[in-house]
Design brief:
The complex is a heterodimer of chains A (about 550) and B (about 190). Chain A has helices at about 10-15, 25-40, 40-60, 65-80, 95-110, 115-140, 165-170, 185-190, 200-205, 225-235, 235-245, 250-265, 285-300, 310-325, 335-355, 360-380, 400-415, 420-430, 450-460, 460-465, 470-485, 490-500, 505-515, 535-550, and strands at about 170, 220. Chain A is an all-alpha fold. Chain A has four domains: about 5-55, no CATH class; about 95-145; about 165-235, no CATH class; about 255-550, Alpha/alpha barrel (Glycosyltransferase). A two-stranded antiparallel ribbon of chain A has the order 1-2. In chain A, helix 2 (about 25-40) crosses helix 3 and helix 13 (about 285-300) packs parallel to helix 24 (about 535-550). The longest helix of chain A has 26 residues, at about 115-140. The radius of gyration of chain A is 28 Å and the shape is globular. By secondary structure, chain B is mostly helical. Chain B has a domain at about 1-85: Orthogonal Bundle (Rna Polymerase Sigma Factor, Chain: A), CATH 1.10.1740. In chain B, about 70% of the residues lie in helices and about 0% in strands. Chain B has helices at about 1-5, 10-30, 35-50, 60-80, 100-105, 110-130, 135-145, 150-155, 160-175, 180-185. Mean pLDDT of chain B is about 70; it is low at about 80-115. The chains are: A mainly alpha (about 550), B mainly alpha (about 190). At the A-B interface, helix 3, helix 4 and helix 16 of A face helix 2, helix 3, helix 5, helix 6 and helix 9 of B.
Chain lengths: ~550, ~190
């Protein structure tokens, strides 16, 4: 192993994450890492240098404003509409012959004259004044560029995850498909962005890739996080191992339960591609929310719109969700935040699953759609950190806040929108509605404080929300509720198994969920605490999502 | 860029989407004048459009783009001595013309956080101002854009060894000036 002084120069490269491995040859890199791992002095130095890079980056980073983006694109559109500049003369009109020589000569004399200079200066002054006047009009109180004045608490806090490419390279290859492709030196970088508790080297060493992830195209780094989960949830060997470890003898029942439910759902797609009951006059329309949950259930099991068995059902459903995010909620949608959150989650996962099969334009288009919808969601956050049933609803609700949290967590995982501070504020709001022991209330402290589905969701997203989520009383309440077979609650099945997925009692909690599945593959919404509007389709989608938790890291 | 050179304008819009923020920050950290930074970003993209036929696929696009950016900076603001103050120590981070959304997006999300972020931003600007222009160019290309040393050398037209020595000088100067801030950042 090298000494500290021999490695002094290399510590900078190691600390400088973008050059980590790029400017150090692999053998040297391994040597440096081994030394740093064993030497606290060098480890501290690397950490300090990383802090220097980080503080400079974070303290001085700015975002292009929408106005700047629009101005830039407008200027470029004008340029793109013009002929290619290299092919045209710079500056003057093309002239020829004696008239041209005479003209050029006169122009040259004129340009050098004092009068020309005076005229030029006057012209610049007039133009600047005119531009200033126009700008003042545009941004004045009622001008078109005037941004609405809102308090800081209400501003969406959106940042593209530019730092992901900085850590992983502008374009990062997918996790390797075999041990032979494994670059051990890259693993720490992936590990930094992985969900807690995931053994990435173990996942990357699994030999079989998910089919949709198998081509060799580069993938932009931001989706690595979500792909890690997708891979873990869809690669057969990983799934089976994980299920066996977690639920023992129930493991063989998971895949048939999921497949049966997906087949049942596929037969229930509506004419417009959506799922759920078509409402009668004056009735609530929750089809967008149901469709979001159904698509999420398919996608989290590796079924994409390109899938041979279910693609024909998923393509129109995905198109309907895109339209939902673009056009806003249906007038009769009783709880638009739910359908927004579910649509966002479904399209985020599907985007990641299909990423390599999309051309650049389709990738960008979806990215833009997700980002805009994510920003709109953030803009709906209330000053208290919570979310209401619809944008502008100042009365925050725990359930809405948890749905929004799940969507924001997925967008972060996918590298589309980072809203860490928003999530922490949501956590602060939810913490205010928790009873002793971590049981979650709805809108007021004590309001349906025994609701185990919300308590479970809080446990599942405790890390993202920045709240303590390991209260044993809360875990016990969730476990007890799941064990109560007389109680229909598909939402609890989903959030509860999510919260308990790494706990030893998972098998006991899964058993009643599997037992409630009907022979035709569906789950019933009759007497369900949360699925009355969404019907059997929603209960079944949530059932699939619940049992799929067994596979999820 | 290759597709754009072949006439696909949408490909260029994708490039703009991908690089606008990074370029804006590149010029922002050189000038700390938002209008100057925005103007420079626009000029770089306009030059890319005008010279779309010149880029060769064997060159890395980011290297090519930052060479244009660096040349623009030298032409416009350094050699002509028309540069705005290199650091606006008289102003706070909130006085730079940035909209509220920028402050929010850059991390200053609550009033208390914002005040702290402003002070920090001023200290960091002051530290960057302590670097020579050459050191700052290397540091910003390496750190904020993630260019490799060889690419920085190509961008600036200097040997890799010079890049390395300037980078070391820059980082160790900043390390001395921002030690406390760096430690806090790691917490």
């Amino acid at each position: 192993m090298s000494t500290c002084s021999e490695l002094r120069d290399d510590l900078l490269l190691l600390a400088h994450a973008t050059d980590d491995g790029a400017s150090l040859d692999p053998v040297r890199a391994a040597d440096v890492r081994a030394h740093v791992a064993a030497c606290p002095v060098c480890a501290a130095e690397v950490a300090l240098l990383r802090g220097v890079f980080g503080v400079v980056r974070d303290a001085t980073e700015i975002e292009p404003t929408p106005g700047e983006r629009a101005a830039l694109l407008a200027a470029l559109d004008a340029e793109l509409a013009a002929p290619v500049a290299d092919a045209r003369p710079a500056g003057r009109l093309v002239r020829s012959g004696a008239w041209a020589r005479l003209y050029d000569s006169a122009l040259a004399r004129y340009e050098s004259s004092a009068r020309f200079r005076r005229v030029a200066v006057a012209s610049v002054v007039v133009h600047v004044a005119a531009a200033a006047l126009i700008a003042w009009v545009l941004v004045s109180e009622h001008g078109p560029l005037r941004r609405p004045h809102v308090g800081i608490e209400q501003r969406p806090e959106v940042a593209r995850l530019e730092e992901f490419p900085k850590l992983l390279g502008d374009e990062t290859q997918l996790p390797p498909r075999s041990a032979a492709e494994l670059d051990e030196s890259a693993l720490p970088q992936y590990q930094d962005w992985s969900p807690a508790g995931v053994d990435l080297p173990e996942i990357f060493r699994t030999p079989t890739p998910a089919p949709a992830l198998a081509d060799g195209q580069p993938l932009t780094a931001p989706t690595v996080g979500i792909l890690i989960r997708l891979r873990a949830a869809t690669v057969e060997e990983t799934r089976d191992d994980r299920a066996r470890q977690r639920v023992g003898d129930l493991a063989p029942r998971i895949d048939p339960a999921v497949e049966g439910a997906l087949r049942w759902l596929a037969e229930r797609a509506g004419d417009d591609g959506r799922f759920g009951r078509v409402p009668g006059a004056g009735e609530e329309d929750f089809r967008d929310g149901v469709t979001g949950a159904v698509v999420l259930a398919f996608v989290q099991n590796g079924r994409s719109p390109r899938d041979e068995a279910f693609g024909a059902v998923l393509r129109p459903a995905v198109a309907a969700l895109e339209a939902r995010l673009r056009d806003g909620p249906a007038a009769a949608d009783p709880k638009p935040l739910y359908s927004t959150a579910l649509a966002l989650r479904a399209l985020t996962w599907q985007w990641a699953l299909d990423y390599r099969n999309l051309d650049v334009a389709a990738r960008s288009e979806r990215h833009r759609l997700l980002e805009q919808a994510g920003q709109a969601l953030l803009a709906a956050q209330n000053a208290d950190g919570g979310f209401g049933y619809r944008p502008g609803d100042a009365r925050s609700d725990a359930s809405c806040t948890l749905f929004a949290t799940a969507a924001l967590a997925d967008l972060r995982l996918a590298g589309v929108v980072r809203a860490d501070a928003s999530l922490r504020r949501a956590g602060t709001f939810l913490a205010g509605l928790r009873a002793e022991g971590g049981l979650q209330s709805y809108r007021e402290p004590g309001d349906r404080a025994d609701d185990p589905a919300l308590t479970a969701a809080l446990l599942a997203y405790a890390r993202e929300l920045g709240v303590r989520g390991d209260a044993e009383r809360a875990v016990e309440a969730v476990r007890t509720a799941l064990a109560d077979g007389s109680r229909r609650d598909a939402l609890l099945a989903w959030t509860g198994l999510d919260a308990l997925r790494r706990r030893p009692e998972l098998a006991d909690s899964l058993r009643p969920v599997l037992a409630a599945q009907r022979p035709d593959g569906s789950w019933s919404a009759a007497n369900d605490r949360h699925c009355r509007v969404g019907g059997d389709e929603l209960a079944t989608a949530l059932g699939v999502l619940a049992v799929t938790r067994v596979y999820t890291p | 860029m290759e597709r754009f050179g072949a006439g696909d304008d949408d490909a260029f819009r994708t490039l703009v989407e991908r690089h606008q923020k990074a370029l804006l920050n590149f010029f922002w950290r050189r000038s700390f004048d938002r209008q100057v930074a925005q103007d420079c970003v626009q000029e770089v993209f306009l030059r890319l459009v005008r010279h779309r036929g010149r880029w060769k696929p064997d060159a890395k696009f980011t290297t090519y783009m930052y060479r244009i950016a660096e040349n623009l900076w030298i032409d416009r603001y350094r050699s002509k001595k028309a540069a705005p103050p290199e650091t606006s120590l008289q102003t706070t981070a909130g006085d730079d013309g940035a909209e509220l959304g920028t402050l929010v997006a850059s991390g200053a999300r609550r009033p208390d956080e914002r005040a702290g972020a402003n002070e920090l931003a001023v200290r960091v600007r002051a530290a960057l101002a302590e670097l020579s222009e050459d050191q700052r160019a290397v540091f910003l290309l390496a750190e904020t854009r993630g260019l490799k040393y060889a690419e920085i050398g190509e961008t600036l037209g200097i040997p890799v060894g010079t890049v390395k020595s300037r980078m070391h000088a820059a980082v160790h100067r900043l390390r001395g000036l921002l030690q406390e801030e760096a430690r806090e950042h790691l917490l």
